[in-house]
Amino acid sequence: MAQSIEARNISFQYDTAAGPVLAVKEASFSVAPAEFLCVLGPSGCGKTTILNMLAGFLTPTGGEILMDGNPVTAREHNRGVVFQDFAQLFPWRTARQNVEFGLEMRGVSREARRETARQFLKLVKLEKFADAYPHQLSGGMQQRIAIARALAYNPGVLLMDEPFAALDAMTRDEMQKQLTEVWQETRKTIVYITHNVAEAVYLADQILVMAPHPGTIRARIPLALPRPRDPLSANFVEMQRQVLANLTH
User: Fold this and answer.
1) Phi/psi of residue 130, each to 5°?
2) Distance, CA of 72 to CA of 195 (rounded, Å)
């Protein structure tokens, strides 16, 4: 089941050799079950720090995060994470074996793992590449495998940290379309980090615009654009203008 998220005045301070650095300051937001949230902002605004707190990799130094009303802990398995780096896949495992990994760690039977992997490889349109190794796949295909792996053990929340940033423009556009299709079919709650305005407008139900030094939420922008979205439409272009206005002022 998709889960809700509530962040209440969360802050995070890094301790460095030069002294403490406040990366995120008193950020509050909520995400409804099955909602698609994009966190948008320039480098250094705390986007990835927020994602790492949601994942349980970092513990807020102030405030709290709740998922379905329960405090987030590092030991929970209700969150899937997809990173930007293609190296997140295990190079010695095939596409199917990569997708099976989380289920294997949970002790799921071999037959059940294979069937689940088959379903999610089909979902990301890569069932014909089940026995291929990561080095035999393009960057976009590797990211689709990573998405299938994150979804295979049925997390309530999918966290994505600029997963398409390293792809060429045409592949990135296609991946955005496929991610939208996967989300509409699985209805997971998604938090997606990006610095690309057009990408945020294409994907999101709501956008959080962040400002740096320290990272604070500058604006929350709901999007009522119908899907599928046409990046060349007047409404899409106007929404980009609204987001940019909040990003640059």
Assistant:
1) -60, -35
2) 26
pTM above 0.70, yes or no: yes
b/e map 27-60, b = 16+ CB within 10 Å: bebebeebbbbbbbbeeebbbbbbbbbbbbebeb
Mean pLDDT for 79-103 is 91
Beta bridge partners of 245: none
Residue of 89, 84, 81, 80 whose CA lies nearest to 136: 89
31 SS3 class: strand
Which of 29, 25, 48 lies closest to 222 in space, CA to CA?
29
Amino acid symbol at 44: G
Residue 65 tokens, joined: 């995060």
H helices present in 46-94, as ranges: 47-55
- Is the model's pLDDT at 162 over the cut of 70? yes
Q: Which amino acid is at 139?
A: G
C-beta separation of 52 from 40 below 8 A:
no
In this structure, which amino acid lies at residue 24? V
CB atoms within 10 A of CB 104: 14
Write out pLDDT tens, residues 14-60: 998 888 999 999 999 999 999 999 999 998 899 999 999 999 999 99
Helix (H/G/I), strand (E/B), else coil: 229: coil
